[in-house]
């Protein structure tokens, strides 16, 4: 079995103490931003007033932008990593999901 290749920047070290580090704070804020964007999505689905919908949508977009910026900071500091997918994994996923398009109501 082949070993997974990590996609990651060099990790910025933080002190290992009982106090929250910069990494802990950013991770906490990132989790909060993710929760907030999901909650704004629910609020938009339930908004019956057009201006309220537009206001929530604008706030949601700003929150998503902030979430993305936090993710980018964490990735640059090496606190987020990814496993690179092999061509075989990509082909398997493509085969698995390509048949679903026939189930769409519109072509």
From TrEMBL:
Keyword annotations from UniProtKB, A to Z: Capsid protein, Virion
Biased composition (Polar residues): 1-20
Stretches the record annotates as Disordered: 1-22
Domain of life: Bacteria
Gene3D superfamilies the UniProt entry points to: 1.20.1260.10
Name of the protein in question: Spore coat protein
